[in-house]
């Protein structure tokens, strides 16, 4: 999912949120929602569908306020319903909050039961709603929203990056491992109002606006300047009183940022840990050329996430880079299709080979990952039909052998082709002439030095998975 938040009295916060979500649409296409706070109350509008299917110009105009949050939802195993769209709203007496969550919480079943016993009612089966209700419940009991968030962070386990508003303050907080990304940016308000001559720090003092978002590409689109990442375990509060930071829960000794963000999920123009995702992918391709060289005539990338590593592979190997596949921009991500047939069809709708570029050539084909194997089976077939002499598949990440429990739903372990077949067997299954994956060390060497979660590749889970949760994913 993608989350966004803005505190900027005097600006059109609903439209800023809309633009921010537009830049984050790749993080989720199943539902979209915006909540605004106007000093008196909190209003939410959300629905199933892409951002533009949910919000008309008139909808945005009716959402007026000083602060807002937004959410785009990633299609996961959970129910597709209006109720599970976000932001979630909780109203208990005079405590009203809206919350947007990216990630997955692994221990909410028990917490939900306890809340129900306390008389709290639920609208959906979503883990994010449990967090919302918990925060609402504790805030009502303690009369302090920050205390409500802190107590909730002590109870919930998993990966989360959350934005939250009440009538007048914006909060942003992140799990103690920093699994899901969340960045802080600053809006130069005077610039936003159209006078760039007043755009220096001095004149914007006292008239500040702040933005939080899953990725820096959402800061860029609203003209905000990157300030820093929200720290693991931190709670940030932004209001009239300025920006206040507090450690909600102790940060883990070593952070565990999701490494799949750089491999696949994030946009290439986003900057993570100080390095653009584009440069990370390019360097993965260079590593891959060292680890798995091959004699060939042309390197092609599978659009979009396979293009930067293909450039890197070409540069390092000396084999020319070329365009071999054209992507239809109007087809949403294939992964999200619910059935295998629809997914296979999705590949053909989405990618078409450039025949005259590839006919007769020995190709190196780079893609970011093989999860179920659906994409590669179709692709290799298409490339051969288009006349490729040889097809050598190179993947710029290690084998995905383990399910993710922290917010990237790669499905159950039995669906992961690498959990069930050897590299040679996969190569035969997809019909390639050769196949190789990047090593874990090669992947890490392409990224800034940080603590990363690599669980889907290594099975080393930073946050323990309760036995009651997701057992079926291991079957
Ligand atoms: P497969 O077809 O093997 O099941 O999935 C691999 C393809 O899906 C790759 O082309 C990759 O770019 C894409 N992919 C990998 N992980 C994800 C994901 O979490 N979500 C979506 N939407 N696509 C993914
Ligand atoms: Fe990211 Fe993989 Fe860890 Fe999930 S298991 S958080 S996809 S690195
Ligand atoms: Mg792809």
Automatic annotation (TrEMBL):
The active site is at 1 (nucleophile). [4Fe-4S] cluster binds at residues 258, 404, 453, 456. Keywords: 4Fe-4S, Glutamine amidotransferase, Glycosyltransferase, Iron, Iron-sulfur, Magnesium, Metal-binding, Purine biosynthesis, Transferase. Residues 1-241 form the Glutamine amidotransferase type-2 domain. Pathway: Purine metabolism; IMP biosynthesis via de novo pathway; N(1)-(5-phospho-D-ribosyl)glycinamide from 5-phospho-alpha-D-ribose 1-diphosphate: step 1/2. Mg(2+) binds at residues 305, 367-368. Its EC number is 2.4.2.14. One of its GO terms (biological process) is purine nucleobase biosynthetic process. It catalyses: 5-phospho-beta-D-ribosylamine + L-glutamate + diphosphate = 5-phospho-alpha-D-ribose 1-diphosphate + L-glutamine + H2O. In the C-terminal section; belongs to the purine/pyrimidine phosphoribosyltransferase family. HAMAP family: PurF. This is Amidophosphoribosyltransferase. It comes from Enorma shizhengliae.
């Amino acid at each position: 999912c993608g989350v966004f938040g803005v505190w900027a009295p005097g600006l059109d916060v609903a439209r800023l949120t809309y633009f921010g979500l537009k830049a984050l649409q790749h993080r989720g296409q199943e539902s979209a929602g915006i909540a605004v706070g106007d000093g008196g109350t909190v209003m939410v509008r959300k629905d199933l569908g892409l951002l533009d299917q949910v919000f008309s110009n008139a909808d945005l105009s009716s959402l007026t306020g000083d602060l807002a949050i937004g959410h785009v939802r990633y299609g996961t195993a959970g129910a597709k319903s209006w109720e599970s769209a976000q932001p979630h709203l909780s109203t208990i007496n005079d405590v009203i909050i809206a919350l947007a969550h990216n990630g997955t919480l692994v221990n909410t079943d028990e917490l939900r039961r306890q809340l129900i016993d306390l008389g709290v009612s639920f609208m959906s089966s979503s883990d994010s709603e449990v967090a919302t209700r918990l925060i609402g419940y504790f805030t009502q009991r303690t009369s302090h929203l920050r205390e409500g968030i802190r107590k909730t962070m002590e109870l919930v386990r998993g990966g989360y990056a959350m934005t939250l508003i009440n009538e007048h303050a914006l909060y942003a907080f992140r799990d103690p491992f920093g699994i899901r990304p969340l960045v802080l940016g600053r809006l130069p308000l005077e610039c936003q109002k159209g006078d760039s001559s007043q755009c220096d720090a001095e004149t914007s003092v006292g008239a500040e606006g702040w933005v939080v978002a899953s990725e820096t590409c959402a800061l860029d689109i609203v003209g905000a300047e990157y300030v820093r990442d929200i720290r693991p375990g931190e709670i940030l509060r932004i209001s009239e009183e300025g920006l206040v930071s507090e450690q909600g829960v102790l940060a883990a000794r070593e952070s565990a940022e999701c490494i799949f963000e750089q491999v696949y999920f994030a946009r290439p123009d986003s900057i993570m840990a100080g390095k653009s995702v584009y440069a990370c992918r390019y360097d993965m391709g260079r590593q891959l050329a060292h680890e798995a060289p091959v004699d060939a005539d042309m390197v092609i990338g599978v659009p979009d996430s396979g293009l930067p590593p293909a450039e890197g592979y070409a540069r390092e190997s000396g084999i020319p880079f070329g365009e071999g596949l054209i992507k239809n921009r109007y087809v949403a991500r294939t992964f999200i299709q619910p059935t295998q047939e629809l997914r296979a069809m999705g590949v053909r709708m989405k990618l078409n080979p450039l025949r005259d570029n590839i006919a007769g050539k020995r190709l190196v084909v780079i893609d970011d990952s093989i999860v179920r194997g659906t994409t590669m089976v179709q692709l290799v077939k298409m490339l051969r039909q288009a006349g490729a002499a040889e097809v050598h598949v190179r993947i710029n990440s290690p084998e995905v052998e383990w399910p993710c429990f922290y917010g990237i739903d790669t499905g159950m372990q039995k669906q992961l082709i690498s959990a069930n077949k050897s590299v040679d067997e996969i190569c035969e299954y997809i019909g390639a002439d050769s196949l190789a994956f990047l090593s874990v060390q090669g992947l890490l060497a392409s990224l800034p030095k940080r603590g990363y979660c690599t669980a889907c590749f290594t099975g080393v889970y930073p946050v323990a998975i309760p036995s009651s949760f997701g057992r079926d994913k291991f079957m």
